[in-house]
Amino acid sequence: DTGVSQDPRHKITKRGQNVTFRCDPISEHNRLYWYRQTLGQGPEFLTYFQNEAQLEKSRLLSDRFSAERPKGSFSTLEIQRTEQGDSAMYLCASSLVAGGQETQYFGPGTRLLVL
Amino acid sequence: DAKTTQPPSMDCAEGRAANLPCNHSTISGNEYVYWYRQIHSQGPQYIIHGLKNNETNEMASLIITEDRKSSTLILPHATLRDTAVYYCIVRARRSGNTPLVFGKGTRLSVIA
Hints:
- The complex is a heterodimer.
- Chain A is mainly beta.
- Chain A has strands at 5-7, 10-13, 19-24, 31-37, 44-50, 53-57, 65-68, 75-79, 88-95, 105-106, 110-114.
- In chain B, strand 6 (61-64) and strand 7 (70-75) form a beta hairpin.
- The interface between A and B is medium-sized, with 28 and 24 residues.
């Protein structure tokens, strides 16, 4: 399977714990996005990378959230001191930007439950 | 990016065509119409996109009105596996610097 993969698929944690999610994009895609989706809502943008550079962060991305893409390939999203409001599906998408146009392809998501 | 309006839900009989409307009356000349769908508990799946001409691929057809203020996604022979939330999104032509902005979409239920 050459699609976007995410790990883990599900995570249950206690409030106050740190969690880290991983995303492996489609090979050679230079753009990687993180989105968050809560129940009944569409996905909301968190941040994105062009290769290893983090180019934009949403105001949804509080200082407890940090994302990296150290070698321009896989990415990690860490949430420190989790809160119950962080419970959501975290989605990763990748794309190849060419000629200013792109199509984003999504992974299956990581569902986080904070108790 | 222009705002879109979609009905919250629709039903379709299995084997019939599903026609999902989207209104984007404020769309500008350099904006594309994208469609994604999300099957329960999965990530969104890209379906199709277009600028002004009708488009067709193996999944669906996209019909954009001449004034580009609305469009219709057509699933020609809906199956139970097409039950999902369908999102219509408008994006600037040079979309490389913008994330996708999702609304609430249309929940399509395909009924046996």
